Amino acid sequence: MSLLNILRYPDVRLHKIAKPVTVFDTRLKKLIADMAETMYDAPGIGLAASQVDVHQQLLILDISETNDQLQVFINPEITWASEEKKIYDEGCLSVPGVYDGVERPARIKARALDADGKSFEVEAEGLLAVCLQHEMDHLKGKVFVEYLSPLKRNRIKTKMLKEERDLKRG
Ligand code: QAP
Ligand code: CO
Asked: Which of 47, 42, 39, 131 lies closest to 88 in space, CA to CA?
């Protein structure tokens, strides 16, 4: 297994649209294992393939306390979303150190394929619903800061670019 490089906002590659996965082979399994290792190492609770510069419709989540409940969603689709919305403080491995409230449907139903290409459905609420919607946005090229006001987003962009410059200087 190997750790993958996580793209940092405002990298333009975070805005690429992911294509459906069509081949379910050992290469896909290796990518999932590497993404899981990368997410647990961070540590994080969700990671989309877009964040590691692989523009395929694949995301992983583990919202358990014990870090042993990996969930894999391939070619995910939301089939139903509640009228009721909830605001949750979100973060993102591509925007480290930044957390802010985002409003989304409180409950959703989604359909996806597992690592073997088998279809399944989930009903999600709470953190699972938030995380799944957040990661699905990545596959559409959307980062959660795009829900914030232009003022907040620009402050975040400036902060991230400054950090990137400091990282390069060492
Ligand atoms: C998405 O995000 C998420 O800022 C997953 O310094 C998060 O795993 C959806 C992380 C919260 C809903 C609610 C963030 C790690 C991890 C940071 C993550 C950081 C270190 C974020
Ligand atoms: Co994210």
From this structure: 131
Please work out whether the CB of residue 87 comes within 6 Å of at least one atom of ligand 1. Answer: no
Number of domains in the chain: 1
Q: How many helices (H) and strands (E) does the chain have?
A: 3, 7
Centre of ligand 2 to C-alpha 84, Å, is 23
Residue 4, domain member (yes or no): no
Task: CATH number of the domain at 130, please.
Answer: 3.90.45.10
Residue 1 has a pLDDT of 85
pLDDT digits (tens, 9 = 90+) for 63-109: 999 999 999 999 999 999 999 999 999 999 999 999 999 999 999 99
pTM of the predicted structure, to 2 decimals: 0.98
Question: Does a structural domain hold residue 101?
Answer: yes
